[in-house]
Design goal:
Blueprint: H1 3-18, H2 25-31, H3 38-42, H4 46-69, H5 75-92, H6 94-101, H7 104-108, H8 111-133, H9 142-161, H10 174-185
Helix pairs in contact: 1-2, 1-4, 4-5, 4-8, 5-6, 5-8, 5-9, 5-10, 8-9, 9-10
């Protein structure tokens, strides 16, 4: 593992354990077992390091989505599983989820993050297109359908994270709500 990769992994771990405020270049160097100056040699600033973490997470998600697309499952099942992977990511890595999906200014200044975000979205849109080709979704603009599914998922994830979507209250889970929405939109 390169020093760069160690620093990105250390920053990701700090995000997971302490949130974004725990990530300082000095703390990342220490957490990686390197000098406190090491991050400064690899990243222009803290935002560049956070962008590298977000880029790595989006790359992992895009890889998961590509593997799903290549599987033998039905297109609709692939789409639901991909959205489920995003929901799982939000639950297991809430600070990193917020970093990836709630920090648009970070992508403005980091080309690698923009490219990986585009690649990740392209996989979701390809799954939507596959569903349309299999007559599992209506002939509507692919970008609109993908946006609808992702916006709904992000809203439900936020509700769940804020304690507003609880089983104890008799409310369906994020996954159940997404499955219902896809079913309602389906032909």
């Amino acid at each position: 593992m390169t020093t760069h990769d160690k620093l990105v992994q250390a920053a990701a771990t700090l995000l997971d354990t302490g949130g974004e405020q725990a990530v300082t270049l000095r703390a990342v160097g220490h957490a990686a077992g390197l000098s406190h100056n090491a991050p400064y040699k690899h990243f222009r600033n803290r935002d560049a390091l956070l962008a590298a973490v977000a880029t790595a997470d989006l790359e992992a998600l895009a890889t998961t989505f590509a593997e799903l697309r290549g599987s033998a499952r039905a297109p609709r099942d692939k789409l639901l599983e991909a959205i489920g992977a995003l929901v799982t990511f939000s639950r297991e890595r809430p600070a990193r989820y917020r970093l990836v999906f709630s920090t648009p200014t970070l992508a403005q200044y980091h080309v690698e993050l923009q490219a990986q975000s585009t690649a990740c979205l392209a996989e979701i849109m390809a799954m939507v297109e596959d569903c349309k080709s299999a007559n599992e979704l209506p002939e509507a603009p692919t970008k609109s359908l993908a946006s609808l599914f992702l916006a709904t998922m992000h809203g439900l994830v936020t509700m769940e994270a804020n304690g507003l979507l609880q089983r104890e209250k008799g409310l369906p889970t994020v996954e159940e709500n997404i499955a219902l929405m896809v079913s309602l939109v389906s032909r």
